[in-house]
Amino acid sequence: MTVYRFILPVVALVIVYIVVLMLSSYTPRIELFKQPVVLKPSSPQDNAGQCNVSLSPEYTHPVIALASIPGSGNTWTRHLIQQATGVYTGSIFGSGILIKSGFKGEGENFTLGTTLTVKTHYGPVKFPFKAAILLLRDPYKAMLAEFNRRKAGKTGLASHSDFLHSDWRDCVQVKHWEQHTTSWLKVTTSLLVVKYSDIKENTIAEVERIVNFLGYELTDERRKCLEDDINSVFKRTGHEALPDDPYTPDMHKEIDKSIAVVNKMLRDKGHTELQREI
Length: 278
Prior knowledge:
Blueprint lengths: L1 H23 L4 H4 L4 E2 L13 E2 L10 E4 L6 H12 L4 E2 L4 H5 L17 E3 L10 E6 L2 H14 L13 H6 L2 H12 L4 E6 H6 L1 H11 L6 H9 L20 H20 L10
Helix pairs in contact: 3-9, 3-10, 7-11
């Protein structure tokens, strides 16, 4: 018994010592995403210090949706917002590919207000957003872009033969586009409607409109960051290897009908109509 009385306190002290060592060397995973990361501009100019992008302290920003259907340019728009403000955007999805590519807001709990806006492909009732940016794209182009992503990743292009299979028909879900768009247009909270075609044609002006909605001004320094890195690594370049027209007559009829429904609601809500992308 005397031996046990001596050994037990020693064993307890050793266990406590080991636990203290483990705790002192532990770094919580969430802190890895709180370190500022420099997204260097594509051009060789030495202004990386001005173009830092970082997370904000918790509860800095209201949870504002960046809502779209897949294929609408959401990731590219997020890149532009980050370059224009210096604050990461977030997402409800948490893509590992995007995290590895510099979108550190993907690793955040989007409800904590550390990111400036939050990517979502869901409708407005899914999560309690305080406001929203609705990113609209011509559904003909959006569905093509989404099909390219499914077949060849975020920057690749589907092959001509891919369009001959049932996968292409399954991707043409224009009713989902219509329902998603009209559900966001019906929200009574603050809503900014942005069209992908406008961002392409007038990038700086449209991004300035977005960041103003988010409560930021586009400073001269951040404007330079934006101009130096307009295209992110996820902006698809090149042309689709399309058949003459991948859409069947029935698809055209259904898509045009949905566009008419959305355009009527856009007019009724005081917005300009969605134009076809050429």
